[in-house]
């Protein structure tokens, strides 16, 4: 997974996505766009970004990535972050997509603060995630 800075109205709410296979990312890129897969090598990673994994087996991480690729692409974007912890929504935002991939496939809740909504930095701060690289 990754979390990058992303701003709306001067507020850094972040952006997140999940690796579904080594060269492929699944993400919900924003308003007016559908969730998609894209090449990791073409993704521009800004400074102050984090690359992370979840502290579980590689098999389970692969299962979450495959779930995102097979079940969560092509969904319309939802701007609702405040109450977004649903795995089967017709619309999804970036953090909901990553959260849903883990929750639905391997039953892990990546929300770091346990609120009604999950935001990108909640995933970064989850007890289940491990930062292995910080882009400076």
Q: What does this protein structure show overall?
A:
- The protein has helices spanning 58-71, 94-106, 120-124, and strands at residues 2-4, 7-8, 11-12, 15-21, 24-27, 36-39, 49-54, 76-77, 91-92, 129-135.
- The mean pLDDT is 95.
- The longest helix is centred in the middle third of the chain and has 14 residues, at 58-71.
- With 136 residues, it is of the alpha+beta class.
- It is globular, with a radius of gyration of 13 Å.
- It is 24% helix and 29% strand.
- It has a six-stranded antiparallel beta sheet.
- Helix 1 (58-71) crosses helix 2 (94-106).
- It contains three helices and ten strands, in the order E-E-E-E-E-E-E-H-E-E-H-H-E.
Which labels suit this protein?
alpha+beta, two-stranded antiparallel sheet
- Mean pLDDT across all residues, rounded? 95
Total strand segments? 10
Radius of gyration: 13 Å
Structural class: alpha+beta
Secondary structure: helix percent = 10-25%
Separate helix tally: 3
Largest sheet: 6 strands, antiparallel
User: What share of the residues does DSSP label as strand, in percent?
Assistant: 25-35%
SSE diagram, text form:
Blueprint: E1 2-4, E2 7-8, E3 11-12, E4 15-21, E5 24-27, E6 36-39, E7 49-54, H1 58-71, E8 76-77, E9 91-92, H2 94-106, H3 120-124, E10 129-135
Parallel strand pairs: 8-9
Antiparallel strand pairs: 1-4, 1-7, 2-3, 4-5, 5-6, 7-10
Helix pairs in contact: 1-2
């Amino acid at each position: 997974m990754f979390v990058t800075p992303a701003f709306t109205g001067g507020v850094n709410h972040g952006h997140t996505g999940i690796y579904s296979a080594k060269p492929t990312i699944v993400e919900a890129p924003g308003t007016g766009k559908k969730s998609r897969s894209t090449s990791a090598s073409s993704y521009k990673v800004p400074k102050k970004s984090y690359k992370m994994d979840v502290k579980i087996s590689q098999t389970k991480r692969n299962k979450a990535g495959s779930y995102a690729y097979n079940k969560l692409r092509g969904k319309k974007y939802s701007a609702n972050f405040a109450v977004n912890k649903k795995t089967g929504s017709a619309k999804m935002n970036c953090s909901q997509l990553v959260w849903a991939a883990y929750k639905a496939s391997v039953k892990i809740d990546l929300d770091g603060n346990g609120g009604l909504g999950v935001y990108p930095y909640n995933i970064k701060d989850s007890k289940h995630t491990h930062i292995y690289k910080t882009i400076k």
